[in-house]
Amino acid sequence: MRRIVILAEGRLNINDAKTAVGVMRYGDDAVLAVIDSTHAGEDCAAVLGDPNGVGRGVPVVAHVEAALAFDPDTLLIGIAPAGGRLPDTWRAQILRAIAAGLTIVSGLHQFLADDPEIAAAAQAYGVRVWDVRRPPERFAMRLADGRPHRPGSHVVYLCGTDCNVGKMTVAVELHREAQRRGLASGFAATGQTGILIAGDGIPADRIISDFLAGATEGLVREQAEEHDWVFVEGQGSLLHPAFSAVTLGLIHGSRPDRMLLCHDATRTAIRHFEDTPIPPLSEVRRIYEEAAGWLKPAPIVGVALNTYALDDAAARAAIARAQDETGLPTTDPVRYGAGPLLDALLTSV
Amino acid sequence: MRRIVILAEGRLNINDAKTAVGVMRYGDDAVLAVIDSTHAGEDCAAVLGDPNGVGRGVPVVAHVEAALAFDPDTLLIGIAPAGGRLPDTWRAQILRAIAAGLTIVSGLHQFLADDPEIAAAAQAYGVRVWDVRRPPERFAMRLADGRPHRPGSHVVYLCGTDCNVGKMTVAVELHREAQRRGLASGFAATGQTGILIAGDGIPADRIISDFLAGATEGLVREQAEEHDWVFVEGQGSLLHPAFSAVTLGLIHGSRPDRMLLCHDATRTAIRHFEDTPIPPLSEVRRIYEEAAGWLKPAPIVGVALNTYALDDAAARAAIARAQDETGLPTTDPVRYGAGPLLDALLTSV
Fold first, then answer.
1. Which of A281, A299, B128, B236 is the least crowded, having the fewest Cβ atoms under 10 Å away?
2. Distance to chain A for B259, nearest Cα, Å
3. Best residue in A190, A210, A240 to probe B by mutation, most B CBs within 10 Å?
4. CB spacing of A248 vs B252 below 8 angstroms
5. Do A168 and A305 fall into the same domain?
6. What is the per-residue pLDDT across A174-198, written as a single tens digit (0 to 9) for each?
7. Of the residues A92, A108, A131, which one is the last residue of a structural domain?
């Protein structure tokens, strides 16, 4: 178990600090403090405003120096810098953490271990730098072979209407519910937060496109050899103007047996693409089943609705509407439990 | 105009030497000799057996040393080494070419400019090493924004039932036919051979998957600003177990107005995936129109049939069958000219 402090400078909110929230909610590691000078002195849960109280009791501090008081062994870069380049103030904090002997864990596209100054410091202080987005050697240039998964295994792909609707969260909730019921369950992580939680996985968005299906196949096959149920974290959306390729590579690479559809109840258009509306859920369902079916049929058997932004009554009404429209079992697994969705999967095979 | 010798050691045949054939058929450069010690002394066209006589008059020689007699300025690595690693014999020949002052052009996944020995030699002799598969800086990490193309431009995507069925070739034939008719036409290259022919483009299979649609969009937008017709080289197939993600990224990134379907008349299953049959062309057409339509409708208006392996009577019969089945104008543009397919495009807008 690591003792983590998370750098979330200027962006400690529920939308930007996805990785921080995921690690606090699902990680096995202890999160001791979060660094955001704009909220120093507050309680993390109060800043996030998460209805489940994620971050309760975790103090927000102004900088690494203050975080060192909590005796951490790891600094996690929990957000991406605006503009994609490492701000100088962050660099100074990372170097301070290295000098204090902390392991550096980063989900940035730009690999910190390839940065000469950071690499030199890490070597000087004997510190490890883990770039979570660097594809693991065994998958980085793997081509798909299309062989079927172990008979008796069930691979479940988490589809989404868009990015950032809760696919990773739903996969983890289902995995945990399956484990609670004594099922042999695996979680195949495909994004940086999932990889941090699982300790392994593929950064799908960072894989060279020729090898995306192959890397996915390799990861899912390993899991399907060991587990009867494998929950594959989905990425992007088939309807996304920028990221649909990532989605299709994950679907065809994982060759799922069943799928679940994740949607944010308040989202009507693709985020950052307001001219691209999200079609009705029944149409999104048809599209995913169509695309999976080009290689192997994989019905969608339930809908996971993210009702984070709604009060309880509105959430229940939204769930009832989605269930009526699709004819599929629907719930918000974070708010009301993943049981009904796991039931739907179990009765479908 | 470059003076090229092509390294195709042990693989000078019509299937493996796709890049060599493409450059000889469509390139502006002079190909002086091809290197393959297993066919030294023969004529390249005789070895290839191409019905259009590609490679006629180009001698096959045993090694770089013999090729230097033709006074080349460029060595092109025209095939990938078996197993993906550079064989020692190739390395020696590349170093010999560098010592003779030749520019090195390579389509390998492994970048030659990053190889310490080759890089050092290139620097010592003042020689340029061009890794065609290295994504151009301006596209390597570009995110798609989804903006429409210039009004009045027509973007045409070349779909395929599989890899290696002739998509690049058909794109170039159409581009040339359009130029012959005085149309402002552009060719958007997305694979190494196309990039060599066009001198620019994106190595789609090498782009990080998050940026594939964005790189495609960037390339196609540049072309659509300058040309009324843009022919986008397709890659892979939506039905391909390993490469469907590349295909979808290119389609959604290029946002085509029209599409053409390319098929090898003798192919019944995906190459190397014999358990994955190619559906009837009318079904493949439906699938491509479906996937493009998730973002923007793009009808397929013609079929390009690769009849390379058939005699004339069988070729004409295959074309008639495909035309009957799909109801679309069909021809083999390499064998019988691209005119009918360009006509189909022009009358469709």
1. B128
2. 18
3. A210
4. no
5. yes
6. 999 999 999 999 999 999 999 999 9
7. A131
Both structure tokens of A29:
């590691």
Give the number of beta-carbon pairs within 8 Å between A and B.
114
| A245:B212 CB<8 A | yes
CATH number for the domain including B270? 3.40.50.300
Residue B252, chain A, CB below 8 Å: the answer is yes
Tell me if the pTM is above 0.90.
yes
Q: What is the pLDDT of residues B131-162, one digit of tens each?
A: 999 999 999 999 999 999 999 999 999 999 99
Q: What is the pLDDT of residues B72-129, one digit of tens each?
A: 999 999 887 766 678 888 999 999 999 999 999 998 888 999 999 999 999 999 999 9
**B66 pLDDT band (50/70/90 cuts)?**
very high
Task: Decide if A148 touches B, using CB distance below 8 A.
Answer: no
Cβ contact A209–B246 (<8 Å): yes
Q: Are residues A332 and A263 in the same domain?
A: yes
**What's the domain range around B56?**
3-131
Which of A131, A159, A182 corresponds to the end of one domain? A131
Chain B, 224 to 243: residues with Cβ < 8 Å from chain A are 238-239, 241-243
User: Is A241 within 8 Å of B273 when comparing Cβ atoms?
Assistant: no
CATH number at residue A91: 3.40.50.720
- Across A11-25, A319-333, B80-94, B256-270, least confident range: B80-94
Q: Is some CB atom of chain B closer than 8 A to the CB atom of A144?
A: yes
Chain segment B190-232, per-residue pLDDT in tens: 999 999 999 899 999 999 999 999 999 999 999 999 999 999 9
